[in-house]
Amino acid sequence: MTTSQAPLNQALVFEVAKNNLHKTRFVALNIEQPLAENEVLLRVDKFALTANNISYGITGESLGYWLFFPSDNDPHQWGRLPVMGYADVVSSNNEHIKVGERVWGFMPMATHLKITAGNISKAGFSDVSPCREGLSPVYCRFDRVSENPFYQQKNEDYDILLRGLFTTSWLVDDFMFDNQYFGAQQYLITSASSKTSIALAFTIKQRGERPAIGITSTANRHFVESLGCYTKVISYEEITTLDPNVSSILVDMAGGKTTLSSIHHHFAKQLCYSCRIGATQHGDIDVNDTMSINHLPGATPTFFFAPTQLKKRSLDWGAGETMKQMSVSLLHYIEFCRSSITIAHTHDIDHLNEIYQDVLAGTADASVGQIISLNK
Q1: Which domain of life is it from (predicted)?
Q2: CATH code for 12-148+342-372?
Q3: Is the pLDDT of residue 364 over 80?
Q4: Residue 316: exposure state from Cβ atoms within 10 A (0-12, 13-18, ≥19)
Q5: Can you give the pTM of this predicted structure?
Q6: Using CB atoms within 10 A of its CB, is residue 89 exposed (0-12), middle (13-18) or buried (19+)?
Q7: What's the chain's average pLDDT?
């Protein structure tokens, strides 16, 4: 439910109740006061909304996602979910950042975002606001579009829909490869219809070293099979039909306790690595229930933190080469997705909550990517 309707022609941000993700509200933003030193005002042009953003809300307290954009009014009860988007600089009190610059990065579901700019380079700059202290610098960074050699205007919608989650998936595949797959012969990927899972299956298939079994709901099975990037697709009810003697890596995008337990008990010691990422089955999740999770048979479930592997590869190969490899792979993935994922544009601010509730409930069409533009 939404506690307030969105006023027209006003700077706004969409907020979510931390203890009840179904409860939302629009809050007015004060963007009229003069900018302090190094402050920059961004006008959010467009952002993508996916199940991955719901995961940020579910793990917001444990993994710190609520800290990126704290609410100005009752931050203990309300939060602002991070999304990936494009924005334009409309006001700047930093001599190195000019009005009119277009940037890509992490932002709230809002019309505007005020940041304190620092760590400025030719390629981009960071938000060094006090609330960012201690958070991963990767998520505080804004890329300058004019300096991105892989930027293509025609790809913008797919870029904000896919780049963040593709980066995570690319790094998961690289992490497993880097660790010789922990001795496993196959991947098991839950929530196989989610865009993060699809990206992972795509990168796994591109590497061509291990098969990937997609696990999804019966309703999404046909769509997942049509993608052609999974070696095999099964429903959650069919987990026990899999051969328990095949050593496996679980990449859990669903997060539900029932599914996690079922896979761990079925494969037991043959589960060589259990990688936790998403939380699409939010109705069956208790992020604080570490005791029962840590005592499951097989490998101990471990949250994957993408910046750690990104930092390792940047040290191994250099930051430039690492970004080049990911960017080239992303371009191939975008072309793959054009035939399987269509883009739906929304410009009506009061329609945002309806889309959000569909994504939250898991009823959103997996073959449609939602791009929101609150300033249009």
Answers
A1: Bacteria
A2: 3.90.180
A3: yes
A4: exposed
A5: 0.82
A6: buried
A7: 90
